[in-house]
């Protein structure tokens, strides 16, 4: 089990306050890492870090991943406290959300999808990943080792099945929008680029593509999603902890440029 040991390693997770982000932090802490929880809200980030258990020390910082100055300040503080960066989990992302649910069915259609929303999702999901990798990954390349894990989605591999968002009455209250699949597809290929670029410097770069996580969605959606999944259910938020530790640790020492799909078989059929 020493292959999975992260004792003495410094692991950064962006989007640390989200459902999966908190679980990524917990798993890395349990493996022995010093975990740095990054999110846009400083207080929430510190709260996540304060609730972690493990042999390492943990830090929570408020960071805007679309702002280079914000990332550089975080990098300097992390290096001052821990001396190195070993793991970066690019988890922060914007998913489909509309402030007015009554307008979601209309605005989420491709024909009507707002350009400003598309650009905002690109800015966080793609530009933010690029900047975080550049600012926080460069110290890894300089030290000659490290692991970057870019979190994508099954919708970075296959197109959305819009029928699973249709309720029992045949109404479509929501369409999976074009922005999320577009950006998650970009995550997969950015991983390949960076793996090829930084391989000579000992930095491994891989994608984790999770399936849908059950999180109080409408019952009709959970049922229809589960019916399309060979394992017969949506993921639990804890189902990706093993994959994160695997990709972060020496257990995956000869793995780079890969896309680890953990989706209950969703993309297998």
UniProtKB/TrEMBL annotation:
Keywords assigned by UniProt, alphabetized: Oxidoreductase
Q: Does the keyword Oxidoreductase apply?
A: yes
**Which Pfam families has this protein been placed in?**
adh_short_C2
* SUPFAM superfamilies given in the database record: NAD(P)-binding Rossmann-fold domains (SSF51735)
Which InterPro entries does the UniProt record give?
A: NAD(P)-bd_dom_sf (IPR036291), SDR_fam (IPR002347)
Q: Hey, which family's this protein in?
A: Belongs to the short-chain dehydrogenases/reductases (SDR) family.
Q: What is this protein called?
A: SDR family oxidoreductase
Annotated source species = Hymenobacter negativus
Taxonomy, top ranks, is: Bacteria, Pseudomonadati, Bacteroidota, Cytophagia, Cytophagales
